[in-house]
Every structure is written in structure tokens, then in C-alpha cells.
Design goal:
The protein has one domain. It is built from no helices and 7 strands. It is globular, with a radius of gyration of 12 Å.
Amino acid sequence: MNNLINSPVSITAIGFGRDMQPIPKRMEWGGRTYQFIDRGIRVISRRGEQIHSTVTMSDGERSFCLRENAGAWMLLSVC
């Protein structure tokens, strides 16, 4: 089941992948801290002049779909 969230989140630890793409390592949401166990799956999309980076990460129990835009992170869904 996929729960749509669309809520801003705080990324409290970050790493960097290829081409210095930011990779969330830890997130705070809803009063809890989630530690990600993988590097995720990233999709880059473009809508006109806007470029969005969407990454799906796992904490070992759930998958979190996050979107980054100009350094701000939004939690899109949890499944």
C-alpha cells in the first residue's frame, strides 16, 4: 500500500553520489528519525525549466519517496 504524504521533511545527514548528487542518509519526519540503509533509486525529471530529483530510499522496513528541489526536500509517499 502506498500512502501519499506530500510533506516537507528535514534531511539531517546527507552523502553525495555521482556528480555530487545529494543522497539522504537520515530524515526527521513526524517527530521520528529515519536512518536510510541504501543509496536509493534516483530519477531526474524536467518540467519546462524546472528540474526535479526524486529518490526512493529504505530504512529496512519501509520505502520513502523523496523529492529534492533547490535543497528543499519533500516526502511524497511511504510504502
